[in-house]
Amino acid sequence: MPRRRIIAGNWKMNKTPSEAVALCAELKDLVKNDAVDVVYCVPAIDIVAVVEAVKGTNVHVGAENFYIVDNGAFTGEISAPMLKDAGVEYVIIGHSERRDIFGENDILINQKVKKAFASGLTPILCCGESLALRKADTYKEWIERQITWDLDGVTADQVKKLVIAYEPIWAIGTGETATADQAEEVCGLIRALIAKLYDQATADEVRIQYGGSMNAGNAAELLSKPNIDGGLIGGASLKPDFGKIVNA
Ligand code: PGA
């Protein structure tokens, strides 16, 4: 069975609730495509408004983060049951900004992946190398290590539902996109790793996105590659361009 394309916006720390509702209205007709899973991953405070705003459309809602405990004394955090109750279906885990700015390591990221699945949320698990690792030509080992750690104890049936986003850090928000061949190389490597860690059937089902300055101009070429099943889009997800990526 061919894998279904998944185009997800990562709004990051942008849009107040009222701006979020306006953006949903602006994008509504542009993102129509029944052949593609369309997801808006939005700031926690926008979730309730965005779930309401996309009702009756093809858009699914994702969160950008959560904590691994259901409730209790964790000031400032939100839990998986809170996200589920609000209508969230996806959650980004292990984004390089969470890793680098907020110090999240692979142990926590692994716990988050397991907790998301246990809670009925679909993780969008991010991985990717820095420019230094790319230049040192050690990026393949790095990505393999990230994925191996992050999926420790995750079952094959769960991985079949997982979304992995390959996001080279040097391409995030920089306007410098990986070439389609560079992106395909790593997405293919991730799929081969899943086959090695699990089996070929699991590798054939897991969906792998590319992320990093994907835009209306380069999306079609990136998405034409056999191992690239979608995109995780930052900057361009806040503009009408996002509709062009959905329909690329
Ligand atoms: P970008 O961000 O599209 O703005 O490069 C991608 C991401 O960080 O998910």
Describe the fold and architecture:
With about 250 residues, this protein is an alpha/beta fold. It has one domain: TIM Barrel. About 40% of the residues lie in helices and about 15% in strands. The protein is built from 12 helices and 8 strands. α11 links the parallel β7 and β8. α1 packs parallel to α2 and α7 (about 140-150) crosses α9 (about 180-195). It is globular and about 45 Å long. It binds 2-phosphoglycolic acid (PGA). The site of 2-phosphoglycolic acid has 13 residues, from β8.
Radius of gyration, in Å, reads 17 Å
Helix content: 40-55%
Strand order of the largest sheet: 1-2-3-4-5-6-7-8
What is the fold named in CATH at topology level? TIM Barrel
Number of domains: 1
Oligomer: single chain
Count of β-strands: 8
Structural class: alpha/beta
Tell me, rounded to a whole number, the average pLDDT. 97
Please trace the helix and strand order, writing H or E for each element: EHEHEHEHHEHHHEHHEHEH
Q: How many DSSP H or I helices? A: 12
How many angstroms does the end-to-end distance come to?
Answer: 21 Å
Write down the CATH class.
Alpha Beta
Shape: globular
Bound ions, cofactors and other small molecules, one mention each: 2-phosphoglycolic acid
CATH superfamily: Aldolase class I
CATH architecture: Alpha-Beta Barrel
Task: Describe the main β-sheet briefly.
Answer: 8 strands, parallel, barrel
- Beta content: 15-25%
Question: In terms of per-residue confidence, which ranges show pLDDT below 50 for 5 or more consecutive residues?
Answer: none
